[in-house]
Design goal:
Elements lengths: L35 E4 L14 E4 L7 E4 L6 E3 L1 H11 L8 H11 L19 E4 L7 E5 L3 E4 L3 H10 L2 H15 L23 H15 L1
Antiparallel strand pairs: 1-2, 2-3, 3-4, 4-7, 5-6, 6-7
């Protein structure tokens, strides 16, 4: 039985939150990547704190450059690089643990987090807010032309999602949609909603419209 890394009490099955001390234990991943700073200032502003983003290199089989805020630790990254980072960080997964997947989302999802629209660090247009993948529990800010913004802790959330079979479940869902020929659009009550969080699943077209309106109002 796994034990809490903080108080050594046994952890209950399918959860990483200790019922004794209340601490949350991270899911065991392949490794935590070291990084080097390539540029301390890029000229791109953090959409949260408006500090200059820096470029860091994770050195994943060669140069792997992403932008990071040294204040709030948010990341600005291409979608393809997220897939590569997940692949390098999480060993192959062949089973889905739905109970642990739901526990991760419940423990990591910040229910009291303020909902706000952020501007793309590159083009300064409002980004849309999208659920990253099926049952990932992570809502990312996405600029359709320049990349994805991840708040601090969200990349680790995605790693844990993959570790418990979330990406495998996502691929199974997409395969089902392709075979049926019908894409299941998420609503606040269907199976594509974030489990346990009514109203969080959001449609991209609506968000893009809202983002455009916000840009006209505030610019």
């Amino acid at each position: 039985m796994a034990k809490c890394s903080f108080c050594s009490a046994p952890l209950a099955a399918n959860t990483n939150k200790c019922s004794y001390c209340g601490a949350r234990n991270d899911v065991d991943l392949n490794n935590k990547h070291t990084y080097s700073i390539v540029r301390k200032e890029t000229g791109l502003l953090c959409p949260n704190c408006e500090d200059s983003l820096q470029t860091i290199d994770l050195n994943l089989d060669g140069a792997f450059l992403i932008e990071r805020c040294s204040t709030c630790f948010g990341l600005f990254i291409n979608p393809e690089k997220i897939e590569t980072l997940l692949e390098k960080s999480v060993p192959p997964v062949f089973d889905v643990n739905l109970q642990q997947l739901d526990a991760i989302n419940q423990e990591r999802f910040p229910a009291d987090k303020e909902v706000k629209y952020l501007k793309c660090p590159v083009c300064q247009t409002f980004m849309s807010r999208n659920v990253f993948a099926y049952r990932s529990g992570v809502i990312v800010d996405r600029c359709k032309n320049h990349g994805i913004w991840l708040d601090s802790g969200e990349i680790t959330h995605l790693m844990e999602w993959k570790k418990t079979g979330g990406q495998l479940l996502h691929e199974q869902q997409k395969s089902f949609e392709n075979r049926s020929g019908v894409e299941q659009r998420p609503t606040s009550t269907d199976s594509n909603s974030l489990s346990g969080y009514p109203g969080i699943s959001i449609q991209d077209e609506f968000l893009d419209t809202v983002a455009s309106l916000l840009e006209k109002i505030f610019d």
